[in-house]
Amino acid sequence: MNGLASKNAPEIGGYPVGTVAHTRAPAKLNLFLELKARRDDGFHEIDTVMVPIDWCDELRIRRSTEPGIRLTIDWLPSRKVVAQRLGIDDDPKRSNDLLSIPVGESNLVSRALSRFIAEFNIVGGFDCELRKSVPAGAGMGGASSDAASAIACAAKLCGIDSRHPKLMDIAASIGSDVPFFLGLGINPMSAIRATGRGECLSPVNLAEPLHVVVIYPSVSLSTGKVYAASQVPDEPIDGSEIVRSLERGDLRAITRRMINRLSEPARILAPQIDEIIESVWRTSGITCQLTGSGSACFAIVRSPVQARRLANLLQATLGRTSSAGSGAVIVGTRTTQVPTTISIQ
Ligand SMILES: C[C@@](CO)(OP(=O)(O)O)[C@H](O)COP(=O)(O)OP(=O)(O)OC[C@H]1O[C@@H](n2ccc(N)nc2=O)[C@H](O)[C@@H]1O
Ligand SMILES: Nc1ncnc2c1ncn2[C@@H]1O[C@H](COP(=O)(O)OP(=O)(O)O)[C@@H](O)[C@H]1O
């Protein structure tokens, strides 16, 4: 028990009941993603280089005496505004899948916290407020990042060391990308190379932050379906070259070495991706690439000013030309770090 416990609060380890941990859960981009082999357990051996970016969900977790997890979800700045940007109906009854985030055990926040409670024999439970900003099914790892943030907040609230090895086990059991967002043992870092099924991590020191424009069309893709439609190449490309370019800060070389082996299956499942890539090229002459299993794409630019300019240009063009007749969320942002700060209230 630490010295912050109030006199009347039940002592169940860590901070007292009622304490709230608040954090921002960043999205990620895959600058490089190669498939090395298909495994017998249904997963693929991959070689990927990921960067966390400053486009974040917000998560507040409160310790409670009541067992179990209670989760509420809302969109930032509001469901209505996000629906407008995507050119979709915001009425949950006539709903579309794009804004429907599962509550209950299929939400990775709930799943991660349930595992956490079981692993550490925690007395009581957690009340969670998740405010989504990162689109789902975008290849930006929103759900994985939320889960990692939930684990990190719960550990802090319960007085468990952030480097406790069980936290990594819980993370890996929730999803291949969750260990990356937990940032364990590589604290703090700006990029990471992940191998295995995504859980073997080694830090990459970016020479300088990268400025990016991210474009999310009104379509979400299932990671499992995209992997299922993918092909492992006969001669996979190695990620070491792009790692060297990132560490040198050579933007031209970085852009030249970016690849995503999941692009092909994702483009077949969602033709909007081609439209985005072509539109960015036509507008700016800059290479645009899919992140993860899609559907979001990104372009690396030289400065925040160029990011703003390109984002504005794309906002005008993509809305008009989209074959789906719908909008897109376009954000100019930059790389950030994981893990992010957790504040205690
Ligand atoms: C493609 C990537 C690239 O960073 O990101 P996203 O597009 O999901 O953000 C990841 O490999 C996704 O990791 P994650 O989203 O955690 O996937 P998981 O829940 O572990 O797996 C979902 C499904 O994708 C397939 N899968 C996932 C990871 C992997 N290395 N090989 C696979 O074949 C499996 O069929 C698995 O059942
Ligand atoms: N906290 C969460 N936020 C968003 N989606 C979630 C969450 N928990 C579970 N999901 C489910 O996981 C799916 C994939 O989530 P996400 O990580 O956003 O996509 P991706 O794997 O493409 O990066 C969503 O479509 C949704 O059904």
From TrEMBL:
Pfam families: GHMP_kinases_C, GHMP_kinases_N. GO terms for molecular function: 4-(cytidine 5'-diphospho)-2-C-methyl-D-erythritol kinase activity; ATP binding. ATP binds at residues 135-145. It is an enzyme of class 2 (transferase). It comes from the Bacteria. Its EC number is 2.7.1.148. The active site is at residues 28, 177. Keywords: ATP-binding, Isoprene biosynthesis, Kinase, Nucleotide-binding, Transferase. Residues 107-182 form the GHMP kinase N-terminal domain. GO terms for biological process: isopentenyl diphosphate biosynthetic process, methylerythritol 4-phosphate pathway; terpenoid biosynthetic process. It catalyses: 4-CDP-2-C-methyl-D-erythritol + ATP = 4-CDP-2-C-methyl-D-erythritol 2-phosphate + ADP + H(+). Pathway: Isoprenoid biosynthesis; isopentenyl diphosphate biosynthesis via DXP pathway; isopentenyl diphosphate from 1-deoxy-D-xylulose 5-phosphate: step 3/6. The keyword Transferase applies. The keyword rRNA processing does not apply. Residues 245-314 form the GHMP kinase C-terminal domain. Catalyzes the phosphorylation of the position 2 hydroxy group of 4-diphosphocytidyl-2C-methyl-D-erythritol. PANTHER family: 4-DIPHOSPHOCYTIDYL-2-C-METHYL-D-ERYTHRITOL KINASE, CHLOROPLASTIC. Belongs to the GHMP kinase family. IspE subfamily. This is 4-diphosphocytidyl-2-C-methyl-D-erythritol kinase. It comes from Rubripirellula tenax. The gene is ispE.
